[in-house]
Automatic annotation (TrEMBL):
UniProt keyword terms in alphabetical order: Aminopeptidase, Hydrolase, Metal-binding, Metalloprotease, Protease, Zinc
Recorded superkingdom: Bacteria
Reaction(s) catalysed (UniProt annotation): Release of an N-terminal amino acid, Xaa-|-Yaa- from a peptide, amide or arylamide. Xaa is preferably Ala, but may be most amino acids including Pro (slow action). When a terminal hydrophobic residue is followed by a prolyl residue, the two may be released as an intact Xaa-Pro dipeptide
Ranges for domain Aminopeptidase N-like N-terminal: 69-256
Family: Belongs to the peptidase M1 family.
Cofactor requirements of the protein: Zn(2+)
Protein name from the UniProt record: Aminopeptidase N
Record's keyword annotation contains Repeat: no
Amino acid sequence: MNFKAFAVISFAVANGMLLGCKTAETASGSKKSLAGTVTAAGKNQTIPEWVPKPAPYRATETQLTDLVHTKLRVSFDWQKQHLIGEATLTCRPYFYPQNTLVLDAKGFDIKSVELEETASPLKYTYDGRKLTINLDKTYNRTQEYQVLIHYVAKPNELKAGGSAAITSDKGLYFINPLGEDKEKPRQIWTQGETEASSCWFPTIDAPNQKMTQEIYITIEDNFKTLSNGSLIYSRQRPNGMRTDYWKQELPHAPYLAMMAIGEFAVVKESWKNKDVTYYVEPKYKNSAKGIFGNTPEMLSFFSQKLGVDYPWEKYAQVIVRDYVSGAMENTSASLFGEFVQLSNRELLDHSMDEIIAHELFHQWFGNLVTTESWSNLPLNESFATYGEYLWFEHKLGRDEADMGLQNDLGSYLREARQKQVPLIRYHYHNHEDMFDRHSYQKGGRVLHMLRNHVGDEAFFASLKKYLADNKFKAAEIHHLRLAFEEVTGQDLNWFFDQWFLQPGHPEIQIDQKFENGKLTVRVFQNQDTAFTPLFKLPVKIAIWSNGKKTEYPVTVSKFRNVFEFPASAKPELIVFDPDAQLLGTIQHEKTQEELIYQYYHAERFQHKFQALNLLMDKVSEPNVTAVFKDALNAKFWKLRSTAVFAFNATRFMTSADGKDASGNVKFSSPEFTAIKTQLRKIAETDPKTSVRAEALATLASYRDPQFTDVFGKALQDSSYAVAAAGLDALASQDKAKEMLPKIKPLQETRNAEVTHALASFYASHGDVAQLPWYEKQIKQQTGTNLSNFLPVFAAYLLRLPTPEKNKGTRTLEEMARTNGNYRIRLGAYRALQILADDPAVQQMIRKIKETEKDERLKALYGEI
């Protein structure tokens, strides 16, 4: 499963600097929280916000019955949005003799239950969620039996549920079932994780079950179908119908069962004689390979890296509308939300490799070996997140991979302000609580530390052993530890205990002193040890002295750690953890000269990026300006982008330049004229579209009419991101309103970035003439794009006469009350906040807040 949002990470978070619940040592040796409350152990203990509230213990599901095989025959009633099903389940007692079978079956009409072999009816009870069947006799663990269940699944009649990670849990979804929306295709698809497969077929909906399966799907002949395993045949039926028979012969967990039905274009490739297919809407057929085309190379790379070939019969990837999360790793058939469906032009700005690698890596970690309980979810999600790193490291190089790793750290640290829990946690309120930045981003970083600790050869040999020992089984964290210990010969209990079974992270503070030919480095662990352990941290300290770098391995294990090193002169630079692999925060004050030295001499992206960000406020000083001028030509694009950002007018201002009579910044020095020339060249020619877009934003900040032609040319750029940046740049200029006729043709562009930029332009400079365009966009856009569009629409409404403004406000009110997508309701609610100077709108907002039933929105509304 992948639900990660794609967002720009702020400098402080991205570098893991000065974040979390950081404490400082007081003179008495106790610790002081940011609020100033003394929290020395045993004295006036204050519980930090991030300490979890008590939650019940969640045991692994007891296996009374072994679900061996599932055979389904399904057809559909589009009008009622029902599935008409026939399920034949092959079962046997797991160990102890059994005379009953208890199945998960949510919201069904049960028509009949019988013993398959004799066709004799079986007695049962059903409460709407659990189907309890009285068997014809007591069976022992060597005896298989089959039950046949006729049922109707009615997903829309289930009580609505979901979470931030998976926004709905009804299992089976009919999209535009009656074809009333001409902008949207008709589709049916399923979503099983966490326990929603039992919303469309009776099963034992637990991750420690493993079953083989067959599915016969009867559907109108114009639709394509996809399921797990291989398509055995397609047979025509009367009245324009067809039955597709899909069979998976290797066992997997019930939550990984899937179907997808729609008028897809299917683009085919192959890998080692296995089908590799991409299911997209027909108009995206020509970009399908642009989206998914690295899949065969990923299959080869991951198979080679893990020493275990991709195990399933085929690999398919399908994109559907109105999906309830980011993507899902169904066995041999991953499913993706529509944000992945891009044109070739959009692919110039956005690679989907991150999410594609994530779901593909799950085919080993999650599907071949499955977490035995949701408590052990990092065995699935941490590995899939680290699969992203491995792919980027292989395909694009270490800098790109390290940037993703650093963003993951920042993402985890943001969550850690409010929540610090063990990675493997047996106490939680809802199993979907496990789908958080701990299980994903923190877990991926922990695996990277483990790799750094044991070395590459041992790391991948251990993963191979873990996969081989546990294939087609369910596992817990100790299976992983034992695999590593057997390969390496090391006791790794300390590592797994502190990183997987304990909460929090180290908060490191460093100081140094050079005296009498000796360098002393003090390393403090400042985390609140009342709730977080003291960590054992095998790391390195890199010291540059007389231009030479020396690395010293050390182990930080106490609150106060003192390390001494020989040094003939004061070092130019000291870097704690030069491999940038540690999960935690590091506070290490450095001079301007040290940061400049760090940019030029540290090898990892994280340290170069950190140096630039910490120097940014001094960018107008000549020696720092020189660093950023060099960074404009850096090989790695993110460093170039950071340098471009630094030269924005809000930062690059000296007293000599001052401001003109209108308050605009003046940059008249010859040196800065050369920088502007270079920025113009970057805006027009940099190979990375995001760097070109950043350069346009920086040039726009100067409010200099000489760049208007650059902004105008950007509207025709091959990149939508650059075109959108050109629009934003024009909107910030003094004569922006004069550009309205020139930008009107962009109204026909079906791209979210350009549409949002155009909406923002009109919100600043438009009039009632653009209202039909806004209304069209509200009908055409979906999901997150629409949610983000609505607040801009509200800003535009402020420019309109009262009748048009009131009409738009009513549209927002209706969406905030009734839209089926909770994110769109949230976007509409936020939009109304922009209009809240009107007392009538204030009353709307109060009523919406009072009548909202979705717990997620109620919590968010309380924060707005």
